């Protein structure tokens, strides 16, 4: 269990490191209902270990604070009451210092539990908890980016230079024969329940774009009037774009000279035409694909190809593809929208109890994204991973990979 404890400590340490560049004021604010304050992320990931492990397994269990069971419950109806999601930014108390103390207390108790009562169940729950925390590490970066972008100061999350990307090679098409294949996690290592069960799926012959769509290519779509051509858009997407006066990706803006800029975790940057376009909704991705004479891949096509791609780990912003050959940017740059609705695989069964609420109950009115992003923690990505968001979501690092027959 020493290796498991070391892994646990590393994951927990990384979460705190992500909050380190931020002030306490930064950590307490909530920019929209879909995002959460950094302080809440720090507490909720700790709540997960306290609620699902210590409460169940610790002898003479006593909560760190009784109110935290409600305050930091996200969506687990089986646990009980929840503080309203849209009001997480109103939690001026507990202070950040108390949240850090909460983390330290739970970490010490988890360490004692690992040493005194190791078991297969504990191993399973700790692994799930760490994977859950890695999901929140990514959310911390996407949520704080949205928060900082609301300020006219446009402050950087981290003052690290963002070098220009190398020129990209022309987009190429990589052909795949398709056929009857197996989809879903193969049982090697961890997976979430929505990646199971592994099952057979027929995939017709198809081709994938060699790389992600770039900012420069998306700018061509904008300049061609793509946001104002109803023929390119899904009906709901057209209504969404017109109602909200959409003209560009969420973090693009024009300076006083009319030049395009992009807000990043490094602060405002001149728009780099060689980097992949990111923070795109499904509506925008689908409209661009129609404009380009292509389509979005299905999640099964993406996984069929993704099992052959190298895993990459990102930084704080998607990198350019450069002039390489073959499939590039499948992992570690942008999550990639697919045309597949988020639904259960044949034979899917949610686990019993509150943990069974992890994924299954969200299988409605959302679409699947595949790959991983520049904000995804190292070791968290795999070809079978199924991310999912509503069609209008734009605050995630989501980009566009084209497909065609």
UniProtKB/TrEMBL annotation:
<protein>
    <submittedName>
        <fullName>Ergothioneine biosynthesis protein EgtB</fullName>
    </submittedName>
</protein>
<feature type="domain" description="Sulfatase-modifying factor enzyme-like">
    <location>
        <begin position="324"/>
        <end position="404"/>
    </location>
</feature>
<dbReference type="Pfam" id="PF03781">
    <property type="entry name" value="FGE-sulfatase"/>
</dbReference>
<dbReference type="InterPro" id="IPR051043">
    <property type="entry name" value="Sulfatase_Mod_Factor_Kinase"/>
</dbReference>
<dbReference type="InterPro" id="IPR005532">
    <property type="entry name" value="SUMF_dom"/>
</dbReference>
<dbReference type="InterPro" id="IPR024775">
    <property type="entry name" value="DinB-like"/>
</dbReference>
<dbReference type="InterPro" id="IPR034660">
    <property type="entry name" value="DinB/YfiT-like"/>
</dbReference>
<feature type="domain" description="DinB-like">
    <location>
        <begin position="8"/>
        <end position="128"/>
    </location>
</feature>
<dbReference type="GO" id="GO:0052699">
    <property type="term" value="P:ergothioneine biosynthetic process"/>
</dbReference>
<keyword id="KW-0408">Iron</keyword>
<dbReference type="Pfam" id="PF12867">
    <property type="entry name" value="DinB_2"/>
</dbReference>
<keyword id="KW-0560">Oxidoreductase</keyword>
<dbReference type="InterPro" id="IPR017806">
    <property type="entry name" value="EgtB"/>
</dbReference>
<feature type="domain" description="Sulfatase-modifying factor enzyme-like">
    <location>
        <begin position="173"/>
        <end position="306"/>
    </location>
</feature>
<dbReference type="InterPro" id="IPR016187">
    <property type="entry name" value="CTDL_fold"/>
</dbReference>
<dbReference type="InterPro" id="IPR042095">
    <property type="entry name" value="SUMF_sf"/>
</dbReference>
<comment type="pathway">
    <text>Amino-acid biosynthesis; ergothioneine biosynthesis.</text>
</comment>
């Amino acid at each position: 269990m020493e290796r498991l404890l070391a892994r646990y400590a590393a994951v927990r340490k990384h979460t705190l490191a992500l909050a380190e560049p931020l002030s306490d004021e930064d950590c307490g604010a909530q920019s929209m209902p879909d995002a959460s304050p950094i302080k809440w992320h720090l507490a909720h990931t700790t709540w997960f270990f306290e609620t699902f492990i210590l409460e169940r397994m610790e002898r003479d269990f006593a909560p760190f604070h009784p109110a935290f069971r409600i305050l930091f419950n996200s969506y687990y109806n089986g646990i009980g009451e929840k503080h309203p999601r849209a009001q997480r930014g109103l939690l001026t108390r507990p202070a950040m210092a108390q949240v850090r103390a909460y983390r330290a207390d739970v970490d010490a108790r988890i360490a004692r539990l690992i040493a005194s009562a190791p078991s297969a169940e504990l191993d399973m729950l700790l692994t799930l908890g760490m994977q859950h925390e890695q999901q929140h590490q990514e959310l911390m970066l996407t949520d704080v980016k949205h928060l900082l972008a609301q300020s006219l100061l446009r402050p950087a999350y981290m003052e690290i230079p963002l070098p220009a990307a190398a020129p990209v090679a022309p987009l190429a098409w990589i052909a795949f024969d398709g056929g009857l294949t197996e989809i879903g996690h193969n049982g090697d290592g961890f997976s979430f329940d929505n990646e199971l069960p592994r099952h057979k799926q027929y995939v017709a012959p198809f081709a994938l774009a060699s790389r992600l769509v770039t900012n420069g290519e998306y700018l061509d779509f904008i300049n061609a009037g793509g946001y104002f051509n109803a023929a390119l858009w899904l009906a709901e997407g057209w209504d969404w774009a017109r109602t909200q006066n959409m003209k560009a990706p969420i973090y693009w803006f024009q300076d006083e000279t009319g030049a395009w800029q992009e807000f990043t975790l490094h602060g405002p940057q001149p728009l780099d035409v060689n980097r992949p376009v990111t923070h795109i909704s499904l509506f925008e991705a689908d409209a661009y694909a129609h404009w380009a004479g292509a389509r979005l891949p299905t999640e099964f096509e993406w996984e069929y190809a993704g099992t052959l791609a190298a895993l990459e780990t990102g930084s704080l912003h998607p990198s350019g593809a450069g002039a390489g050959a073959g499939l590039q940017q499948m992992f570690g740059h942008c999550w990639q929208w697919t045309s597949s609705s988020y639904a259960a695989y044949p034979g899917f069964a949610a686990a019993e109890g509150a943990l069974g609420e992890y994924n299954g109950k969200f299988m409605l009115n959302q679409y699947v994204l595949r790959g991983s992003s520049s904000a995804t923690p190292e070791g968290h990505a795999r070809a079978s991973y199924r991310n999912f968001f509503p069609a209008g979501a734009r605050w995630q690092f989501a980009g566009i990979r084209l497909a065609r027959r």
